[in-house]
């Protein structure tokens, strides 16, 4: 087949970017306004919302190569299942590389840190109470995930971008039947070894009503796939167990090597992070306060939100420990989807939601103890793990600040 030059160029450009063409403003008219309760219908709504966000992001990007972020250089983050086996393997190889690389943190600061991968885990443990249920939650995790992606690329030769875990897909397929978690060599490893006689995990405490969550289909060490021999070195700090108790190893920064455990729990994925949960989160919450609270689960409401839904659907250790959760490499695919969900929501009202009105909250967990409001000027610091100290305003857009990426 022969192609003329302009067709060939056009094909090349579209293959490189795989971006939908900018749509006319009429696209808004077809956007769903009410979340469908039927998950198949909600799933197509999520597709529509995602395509709309892509078209807006695409039309806001210039084709001028002089702009720092333009159509030609924008990074595209993709869903795990849409990657080829080769791309999946390149990603997990890079994660294994980070786990084999020397830490930047000296053991005088984080005694248990043994690798570059652990630098990120230690940083998250250290800042946990200042980055969840705070004004910085979404932006902090956006930056954290971005810097992790950059480390994979710059320190481990990875040439792709951060993939994400679309929970709505695994809610429909079942976790162990999904390409992310089927335990094959091209997955993020799968379930843990089956442990019998497990009871519920019980969340709540601190005066809140108990929230029992069912155990999953594994519970023991991950037995196959790229991370079957992985060591979790840090934590736990507040690990919820399947006998209703919680266990900790002090501040979690000591050296405590153990296997990676998972307890994949379809019931949690399906209850808190199905397609309807995602679409409803995006469409029903019009301000950032509601959006981020519903996403994390309003304490005492009986919901753990899509954020908790993903974390507790992984289960295991460190999956069920808010502090140490980045110790499971799946964390970054989960937070890729958290970021994608925020990105879609932001693009529905870009001006408002990427500016000062797109921030709500303070610098402490549910403002306890009370602290100053988070603003566009609030600094975000990942310590020695990665990056420079940036401000909230640098993190509000994935294309207008130092970032240059979108989601497909
Ligand atoms: Cu976190």
Hetero compounds: copper (II) ion
Order of strands, main sheet, comes to 1-12
Which fold name corresponds to the CATH topology? di-copper center containing domain from catechol oxidase
The string of secondary-structure elements, in order, is HHHEHHHHEEEEEEEEHHHHHHEEHE
Low-pLDDT stretches are 1-27
What count of structural domains?
1
Describe the structure in brief:
It comes from Polyplosphaeria fusca. The protein is 39% helix and 9% strand.
Describe the protein in words:
This protein has 408 residues and is mainly alpha-helical. The chain has a single domain (38-407), classed as di-copper center containing domain from catechol oxidase, CATH 1.10.1280.10. 39% of the residues lie in helices and 9% in strands. The protein is built from 14 helices and twelve strands. The strands form six sheets. It has a two-stranded parallel ribbon with strand order 1-12. β7 and β8 (246-247) form a beta hairpin. α3 (39-60) crosses α12, α7 runs antiparallel to α9 and α8 packs antiparallel against α11 (305-314). The structure holds copper (II) ion. Copper (II) ion (CU) binds at residues 124, 131-132, 141. This is Di-copper centre-containing protein.
């Amino acid at each position: 087949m022969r192609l003329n030059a302009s067709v060939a160029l056009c094909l090349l450009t579209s293959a490189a970017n795989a971006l939908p063409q900018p749509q006319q403003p009429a696209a808004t008219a077809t956007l769903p306004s009410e979340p469908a309760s039927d998950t198949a219908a909600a799933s197509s709504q999520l597709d529509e919302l995602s395509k709309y966000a892509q078209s807006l992001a695409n039309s806001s990007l210039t084709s001028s190569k002089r702009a720092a972020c333009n159509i030609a250089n924008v990074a595209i983050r993709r869903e795990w299942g849409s990657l080829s086996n080769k791309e999946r393997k390149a990603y997990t190889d890079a994660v294994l590389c980070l786990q084999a690389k020397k830490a930047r943190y000296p053991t005088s600061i984080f005694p248990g840190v043994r690798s570059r991968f652990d630098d990120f885990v230690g940083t998250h443990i250290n800042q946990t109470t200042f980055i969840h249920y705070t004004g910085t939650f979404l932006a902090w995790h956006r930056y954290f995930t971005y810097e992790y992606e950059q480390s994979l690329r710059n320190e481990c030769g990875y040439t792709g971008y951060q993939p994400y875990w679309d929970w709505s897909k695994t809610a429909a397929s079942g976790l162990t039947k999904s390409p992310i978690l089927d335990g094959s060599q091209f997955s993020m490893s799968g379930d843990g070894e089956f442990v019998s006689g497990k009871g519920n995990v019980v969340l709540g405490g601190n005066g809140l009503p108990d929230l029992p969550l069912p155990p999953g289909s594994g519970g023991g060490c991950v037995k196959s796939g790229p991370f079957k021999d992985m060591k979790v070195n840090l934590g736990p700090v507040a690990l919820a167990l399947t006998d209703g108790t919680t266990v900790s190893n002090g501040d979690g920064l000591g050296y405590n090597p153990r296997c990676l455990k998972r307890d994949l729990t379809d019931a949690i994925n399906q209850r808190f992070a199905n397609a309807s949960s995602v679409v409803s989160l995006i469409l029903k919450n019009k301000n950032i306060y509601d959006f981020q609270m519903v996403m994390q689960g309003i304490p005492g409401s009986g919901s753990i939100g899509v954020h908790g839904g993903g974390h507790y659907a992984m289960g295991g250790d460190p999956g069920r420990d808010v502090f140490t959760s980045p110790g499971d490499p799946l964390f970054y695919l989960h937070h890729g989807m958290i970021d994608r969900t925020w990105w879609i929501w932001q693009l529905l009202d870009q001006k408002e939601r990427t500016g000062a009105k797109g921030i709500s909250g303070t610098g402490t967990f549910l403002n306890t103890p009370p602290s100053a409001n988070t603003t566009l000027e609030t600094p975000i610091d990942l310590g020695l793990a990665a990056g420079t100290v940036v401000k909230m305003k640098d993190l509000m857009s994935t294309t207008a600040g130092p970032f240059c990426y979108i989601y497909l």
